[in-house]
Amino acid sequence: MIEATDFIPSKYSQTIESGNFQWSAPSNIALVKYWGKKDNQIPANPSVSFTLNNCKTITKLAFAKKNTSTPVSASNDTFSFDLLFEGKPKEDFKPKIQKFFERIEIYLPFLKDYHFTIDTENTFPHSSGIASSASGMAALAMNLMSLEKALNPEMTDNYFYQKASLLARLGSGSACRSVKGQVVVWGNHANIKGSSDLFGVEFPNAIHDNFKNFQDTILLVDKGEKQVSSTVGHDLMHDHPFAERRFAQAHENLDKLITIFENGNVEEFIKVVESEALTLHAMMMTSMPYFILMKPNTLQIINAIWKFRNDTKIPVCFTLDAGANVHVLYPNNTKEKVLQFIAAELVGYCQNAQYICDEIGNGAIQS
Ligand code: DP6
Asked: Which strands form 215-219's sheet, in the order they lie side by side?
């Protein structure tokens, strides 16, 4: 079994003074949800997600050895970085990056040798309520791995992507599912070969054509700041009365999805995915303190989807993140009809009539 210590490097064959890399990494949408974690960003249960294609973060990482061209303030025993969001300094993101560097330093011992400039932007609208932590942490992890690969060119691709996902996980759990592959599993599962709590892996079994090019239209119901940060939410699973049963259910739902992905049964897919979404929110409603993150329009949309599905027999379903927005999932061959339905009946429930059309994608890309 692969251990976290396998990712601690011994020594690098190359030295490198300065340079830059650029990677984009997509967001992802969980089908079986990660909700609850142990120390070191180890998930309480396995999860699986579709990687998205259009909602992504593009991050450029410039680096220079501290003793050459660095600000005078950059001492050798601190992390030194500037953070730019859409080209402008963004101080409020810095503590998160500082914490990320602290967590990953053991795996990337060169971090304090460099001054970094992290220049980042998202393809989705600012404050859309779409979490950028998954795509953002994944894009940064990819760049850091490019630097490590420059220091150790013998590194295999397999190690590169596994370690990128491991680093991303230490930034934000769901980020480890935004690195590589269309369908990504994170967390040990008895029947998924290679699955690990340490990093995301591409779903290794067959996936039926019904799920190829699956569509995800994200309805922006409420763009406000998250009422509950995911860290607080995960913590509430510690003393949660239903936690153990919920974690077991996630394993069971993954088992069901293994079969569903193979046989292409979209009706069964819908049952698992919608139940997972509502269970996630049920966990929040039954924690102490308790929360309701859905808004009235979230429920309007869910009911409209159920009615449309019933009337037309088109296999469209929903899932939710830890917020009020709704992800509408549907097969590619129903796209025209579902988009008409969204434009005619759902757009009125979206804040400023905003929604984003996305679909399954392949993961991070270097540019
Ligand atoms: C509801 O990955 O944002 O989206 O590890 O604390 O950064 P941290 O949490 P995060 O949690 C995401 C939870 C979720 C479900 C999911 O994506 O699986």
From this structure: 317-320, 326-330, 215-219, 355-359
Please tell me if the CB atom of residue 174 comes closer than 6 angstroms to any atom of ligand 1. Answer: yes
Atom of ligand 1 minimally distant from the CA of 134: 2
- Please name the residue whose Cα sits nearest to atom 7 of ligand 1: 172
d(CA 339, CA 341): 5
Alpha-carbon span 361 to 213, nearest angstrom: 8
Strand, helix or coil for residue 70: coil
| Orientation of helix 94-104 relative to helix 157-171, angle to 10° | 130
Which of 340, 293, 133 has the alpha carbon at shortest distance from 328? 340
Quick check: CB of 327 below 6 Å from ligand 1? Answer: no
10-residue stretch averages of pLDDT, the chain, 367 residues long: 95 96 98 97 98 98 81 73 95 94 98 97 79 92 98 97 98 98 98 98 97 97 78 93 98 98 98 98 97 96 98 98 96 98 98 96 97
Under 8 Å between Cβ of 293 and 230: no
Q: What stretches of 70-226 show up as alpha helix (H) in DSSP? A: 94-104, 133-151, 157-171
Among 230, 238, 279, 281, name the best residue to mutate to test ligand 1's pocket (greatest count of ligand atoms within 8 A of Cβ): 230
Distance 29 CA to ligand 1 centre (A): 10
pLDDT tens across 343-367, in order?
999 999 999 999 999 999 999 999 9
334 CA distance to ligand 1 centroid (A)?
29
Query: Ligand 1 mean position to 48 CA, how many Å?
Result: 12
Distance 101 CA to ligand 1 centre (A): 19
Ligand 1 atom at minimal distance to the Cα of residue 233: 6
